[in-house]
Design brief:
Layout (H helix, E strand, L loop, with lengths): L1 E4 L9 E13 L8 E13 L7 E8 L2 E7 L4 E4 L2 H11 L2 H22 L11 E6 L9 E10 L5 E6 L2 E2 L3 E3 L3 E2 L5 E9 L7 E6 L7 E5 L5 H37 L9
Amino acid sequence: MVSVRAPGAGGCSLAVLIVILTVLRTHLTHCGNPPAVFLYQWKAECHFGAGGQGMRFLDREFINREEFKYFDSDIGHFVGKTEEGVAQADYYNNDTAYLEKNRAVVETFCRFNYELDKPFTEQRRVPPKVKITPTRSPSLEHQNLLVCIVSGFYPSEGQVKWLRNGVEESRVVYAQLLQNGDWTYRVDAILETVPEHGDTYTCEVEHSSLQQPLRVNWEPETSESGRSKLLTGIVGFMLGVVFIILGLIIYLKNKKGTTQLRIPPNEGK
């Protein structure tokens, strides 16, 4: 038996706890035919909404991926979906003690696991990280793609906006929500625009892990190429100042030494 617990997504999302029992049975024949393989599956599922409301237990059985019988705690009895499943459901529905045991599972199994896992699922909060990546363009007159990368957040619900000078942009394309494999998510918000000098672009993220929206700004003058040119200019200016100071110091030392070595022509006579 393998127990798999799916993380809750918070809000009105559906959390499911699944216990899967898979049995493979191979029947060998003596006729030289390939063996027949049969797949039996049993799934115990717990469904609930925000705050554990509407807790529901499903006990489902499948043969070769076809469901033939299930128990639903909302209706309190077994339901058959095939001829054999109907016969089995009638049999178990006549067993009062077995029915009561299954009805209690919604509390003894579902509610118990919900409370146990809640700090790591429904109550878990991881704040997002935001980075703006512009495409390189030869000049500001060309279309630019500004990509706001929002990553490392949990739960998956949130809102990402692009603002231009404080006004929300409508021409935003959102990439598919991706799972990072560590219970966190990533989404990209892409804005196509023509930046102008003086514009300020803001990627704004709202998430349940944040007390207030997270905002990251981007300006054409402070883009990657702009920053490189600015740094180059600053470095060049500083080197020029250093060389000027060194030259002045050397000049003053040489001038002082020449003055000290000068001897009047009539001294000592």
